[in-house]
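Thread title: Can someone regenerate the structure for this chain?

I was given the following input by a collaborator and told the matching structure tokens would be attached. They weren't. Posting the sequence so someone can regenerate them.
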Amino acid sequence: MRRQYAGGSQMTAPKSRVPKYGAGRTIVVKIGGSTLGEGDSTVPDIVELWNQGVRPIVVHGGGKVISDWVARLGIQPEFVRGLRRTDKSTLDVAVAVLAGLVNSQIVAEFQAAGASAVGISGVSGGLLQAELLDDDLGYVGKIIKANAAPVEAVLDSGSIPVIAPTALHLYPSETGEDRILNVNADTSAGHIAKAVRADQLVFQTDVEGVLDARRRLIPRMTRGQAMDLVSGGIAAGGMIPKIEACADAVSVVRSGHIIDGRVAGALLACTRGEDIGTRIV
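Best answer:
Regenerated them for you:
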């Protein structure tokens, strides 16, 4: 059962969009890709923002679903210095799952909730452009440029962009080499937030926020303090790319947030400026 945030509520989409608090603001929300409502913001929370006139941009992951399909197809995982190597077979599965299965499922959820949503990937219109992060890792990309135009076009149409984290491979080493790269979803969200000059970047997680060495919530920190947590080894695992993305984005974006998406209404509370999770400025 999902917890309920005292300042928020789960709401169904009203029949008409009425401008309310925050109308016109652009907010990038990173959610997981395997499910909605388990560790992520719920569709009703994001639809409520859309109905208030906020311009939400959704970036999703899907690592668990990719792993499930890779195993189902009998592809043996390879690791290089602890990182998963993306060979051609794994890339094909990742692209199919992220830009196809997961993206379409999330778009369908928004449509069913009464919102207009359009699914695109980082390859669409050259939204995300990348080079190889490390030859040993295969088709894993390092994002070097983001193009806001495809996202702005969807926003201007009145729809919610739902973005799968793939990128255009700018420098293939040989003719005919795959022009798509797999990129980190958290990092993708940060680059997109900067490109569209978003007002807020929000990461939905399955923890309370960023914790200090004593496992206490850090409610607010600067980008320098955030990076000190990474360099000092206090932040670890999947929290690292989220902190790095926030720290990088706040050079342009007003604020970055890492909150507990399991709490119903947490996203709405965050966008209202209430104290929840960790804010990076």
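Residues 33 and 62 are 4 Å apart (CA to CA).
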